[in-house]
Amino acid sequence: MRPTAPNWLKLLVPVKRTVDYAVKIRVGPKGVETKGVKHSMVRTAPVEEAVRLREKAKDAIEKITVVSIGPAKASEVLRTALAMGADDAIHVETKEDEVVEPLAVARALKALVGSEQPDLVVMGKQAIDDDSSQVGGMLAGMLGWPQANFASKVDLDAAGKSVTVSREIDGGLETLKMQLPAIVTTDLRLNQPRYASLPNIMKAKKKPLKKVKPEEISADFSPRLETVNVVAPPPRKGGAKVGSVDEVVAKLKEAGVL
């Protein structure tokens, strides 16, 4: 039974399965080649931060739910998140090669927020594949919730009614305080994610992972954008050594820079 104390909070953490950051990207006619390459969770910092918030707040956080929108193999990253300390997971399963655009992701997350009723959504600021940095802002706008981007520090107040976020700006730090419910998008400097231990990986296999079909949450993943063409950048030319400032200036003039 859930305690009736007002400071018991629920956290929702969206995660994404993408090509692993260490993989050398190959560009094909339709975009980045994804078949036969290693995939992993795009950002583990939001999951780590959710677990740390519970460790600091002790009994103030009731449940951490992770959610991913993607093909069948996306369940792998959800199991990783569960092994890191999340309590349960939701997988909105898409077709194998289906591209889900940011607006569709935000709308699907809005539906899940309606059913799960979280007090705080913690998510990455942007994915490394589309690099759009749009979902957090779109979701906050749809819900009418306050939002703090690029968080480098996150603290919940003792009463569990507000969150304080520090974020890096040009020339310093900005500190924001928001009433819950709210949305926080994380920066890489927020934390150093833990590695899932073998015992926790085994325990994660027994934690609840709910499969949801897009139509169950009225999600429409039909593309609104059309990719016209994708080409790899031209290969870089090798540099040249110069022996003096005059040679540097001459080379720059030769290149048309000066």
Structure write-up:
By secondary structure, the protein is α/β, with parallel strands linked by helices. It has one domain (about 10-255): Rossmann fold. The chain has helices spanning about 45-55, 75-85, 100-115, 135-145, 200-205, 245-255; strands at about 10-15, 15-20, 25-30, 30, 40, 60-70, 90-95, 120-125, 145-155, 160-170, 170-180, 180-185, 210. The chain has a 9-stranded mixed beta sheet with strand order 11-10-9-12-8-1-6-7-13, sandwiched between helices. Strands 2-5 form a two-stranded antiparallel ribbon. A hairpin with a 5-residue loop joins strand 9 (about 145-155) and strand 10. The radius of gyration is 22 Å and the shape is globular.
In short:
With 258 residues, the chain is of the alpha/beta class. 25% of the residues lie in helices and 28% in strands.
CATH homologous superfamily? HUPs
Mean pLDDT: 86
Low-confidence stretches: 1-6
Number of helices: 6
- Can you tell me the CATH topology? Rossmann fold
Strand line-up of the largest beta sheet: 11-10-9-12-8-1-6-7-13
Please count the beta strands (DSSP E, at least 2 residues each): 13
**How far apart are the first and last residues' alpha carbons, in Å?**
73 Å
Radius of gyration: 22 Å
Helix-strand string: EEEEEHEHEHEHEEEEHEH
